[in-house]
Write a structure and sequence with these properties.
311 residues, 15 helices, single chain, two-stranded antiparallel ribbon
């Protein structure tokens, strides 16, 4: 995920207290998502010359560069944890409780490199992630063995993730994708997915939703999933001052979780509440993120090397 967005409007005093507040909020949020070296890492990803898979006009660029990703990430986590093997892998190897921000930063970096970085960098980070998956194995809470490089498990994680990102963008972006663009987004996410060992990633929204329905029989609510969902929703690693904003963002993410998944997780949010209460909170939270990150230096996030070099 990229960490800066649109520049400040011309009417905003570039030296006023509101502008300084915006910059401070943007820097703090960027550091949480991308780490303490976020600015240097952004320069490296965007500024390194070389051919890229995608350009700024591509749907994957638009989706992964939007603040709606913050809500979509919450949706993805909640859905992914319903697969006992995926939950076991996260619980056994990710350290999501002891180092939640580190895990987020590693995920955000992978998405940023494979979306906005050079092809060479994308292939390198994909190979590194694949090697990590090769070392992941164990037994899930239902007593079944799992492997991090299992193609079916990788497909589940991929499908749940891009479905969540797409749902969030369509719900909270002011410029949602057309149906054809949404299909292109799914197809473009298949390029890095294949490098992780996913042989048959979906190429259209219809294929994506069909594959997700095919996983329904494999899903189960485990104690680990209940604990993880409470951590994400009720006990996040944020200070008291940030809790209201985080709560609104969580509401926006939960609103996009499919109804069956909300019921499995015990999230007390029906369809009407999701539409009329949680989604407006999500809109407000995403708009806040977009405002904060929009104050960061636009030049740093759109280096000339990143323009017009997609394949």
């Amino acid at each position: 995920m990229r960490t800066t967005y649109d520049s400040a409007p011309a009417s905003l005093d570039p030296s006023g207290p509101l502008h300084e507040l915006r910059l401070a909020a943007g820097r703090a949020l960027r550091a949480k998502v991308a780490g303490p070296e976020a600015r240097a890492r952004t320069q490296e990803i965007w500024g390194t010359p070389g051919s890229r898979w995608f350009t700024p006009t591509d749907p994957i660029w638009r989706v992964h560069n939007d603040a709606a990703m913050f809500a979509g990430g919450i949706t993805a986590l909640l859905v992914q944890m319903l697969h006992p093997a995926a939950m076991a892998g996260v619980g056994d190897f990710s350290g999501y409780k002891s180092d939640p921000w580190g895990r987020l930063q590693r995920t955000a970096d992978y998405i940023a490199v494979t979306t906005f970085g050079t092809i060479e960098a994308a292939e390198q980070v994909s190979a590194r992630v694949a090697r990590i998956h090769d070392r992941v194995s164990g037994t899930d809470e239902l007593g079944r063995p799992y492997r991090g490089n299992d193609p079916d498990l990788l497909l589940w994680v991929h499908d749940a993730e891009i479905d969540a990102f797409l749902r969030a963008y369509q719900a909270y972006s002011p410029t949602p994708l057309t149906p054809a663009e949404a299909d292109t987004y799914v197809e473009q996410t298949a390029i890095p997915a294949r490098l992780l060992g996913i042989a048959d990633p979906p190429l259209t929204v219809a294929q994506l939703r069909s594959q997700l329905r095919g996983f329904r029989a494999d899903l189960a609510i485990t104690n680990s999933a209940r604990e993880a969902s409470r951590f994400v929703v009720l006990h996040p690693p944020v200070g008291l001052a940030a809790r209201p904003a985080y709560g609104m963002l969580v509401a926006g993410g939960v609103a996009l979780v499919p109804g069956f998944a909300r019921r499995m997780l015990g999230l007390p949010l029906g369809p009407r509440a999701a539409r009329w209460v949680a989604r407006p909170f999500g809109h407000a939270a995403v708009a806040g993120v977009r405002w904060a990150l929009g104050g960061l230096d636009k030049a740093n996030r759109l280096a000339p090397a990143a323009r017009g070099q997609g394949l």
